[in-house]
Design brief:
By secondary structure, this protein is an alpha/beta fold. It has two domains: 44 residues; 159 residues, 2-Layer Sandwich (Nucleotidyltransferase, domain 5). It has eight helices and five strands. Strands 3-2-1-4-5 form a five-stranded mixed β-sheet, with helices on both faces. Strand 4, helix 5 and strand 5 form a beta-alpha-beta unit. Helix 2 packs across helix 3. The longest helix has 17 residues. The N and C termini lie far apart (60 Å).
């Protein structure tokens, strides 16, 4: 006689654990177990722990501080449409007299459009929020923004803005700049083609020259990754495809 297992199907429980882990990204297995019991699942914490671990949901032990709008558990998939995901970072440079210059760069991960390059001597979290509000008033808010763990990006001001606008902040892993590869690549082009090519006499002068470069980048610079189209051309073509 062949042995037939009579163990109950674990699939519904596994699916529910996944759902809870996805929405409660800072909950470990025991908190998820408590939620399951409150929902009426007849299960002990050992089984929840085993299924949680087997599904690869364990939280990393050493993590930078995250905010309520952070995506912690896994990398976000690639953007499949315009305005689905933005990437954001900082670039530092100097004026001709040595005074510091800092630029906040924001890029659409799908169209590669440079949405903004905000320039000042110093940029705080509140100024990042102002930039996000300004861009969103024109394009609408994205689903996700990829950022590193800089103090401006883990600020309460940006966290609140993201929460109120339904935006997920996807933080790079420490020491992994490739997690935000689009904006890192963009920043390299900005430095090579603009920052290293100009003297900036003042913040106002820097803003004028950098904004001119941003417009040229969007409207005139073809990209191999976009089939040799400019970001503006690619965005227009994508909009036509989406409307068909």
């Amino acid at each position: 006689m062949r042995y037939i297992s009579h163990k109950p199907d674990q699939t519904p429980l596994v699916m529910r654990i996944r759902d809870l882990a996805a929405t409660r990204t800072r909950y470990g297995y025991f908190r998820i177990y408590i939620l399951l019991r409150r929902e009426g699942w007849v299960v002990n914490h050992k089984r929840v722990y085993r299924l949680y671990r087997n599904d690869g949901l364990s939280l990393r032990l050493k993590k930078p501080r995250r905010n309520v709008s952070a995506a912690n558990r896994e990398r976000q998939p690639a953007a499949l449409a315009a305005n689905e995901m933005w990437s954001m970072d900082f670039v530092s440079d100097a004026l001709f007299d040595g005074r510091r210059l800092r630029a906040l760069t924001v890029v659409d991960a799908f169209t590669r459009e440079a949405l903004a390059i905000d320039v000042d001597q110093g940029i705080k979290g509140e100024q990042v929020v102002e930039a996000m509000t300004r861009i969103s008033s024109i394009r609408g808010a994205p689903k996700t923004i990829r950022v590193d763990n800089g103090p401006e990006f883990i600020s309460k001001a940006l966290d609140r803005w993201a929460y109120e606008n339904g935006v997920t902040l996807d933080f790079s892993r420490p020491g992994k700049p490739t997690d935000n590869a689009f904006v890192e690549s963009f920043n390299g082009r900005l430095r090579d083609e603009c920052l290293n090519a100009h003297w900036f006499l003042s913040i106002a002068d820097a803003r004028t020259k950098i904004e001119a470069w941003r417009r040229d980048y969007n409207e005139s610079r073809p990209h191999t990754s976009l089939g040799w189209m400019t970001p503006v051309e690619y965005a227009a073509a994508a909009a036509i495809r989406a409307a068909e």
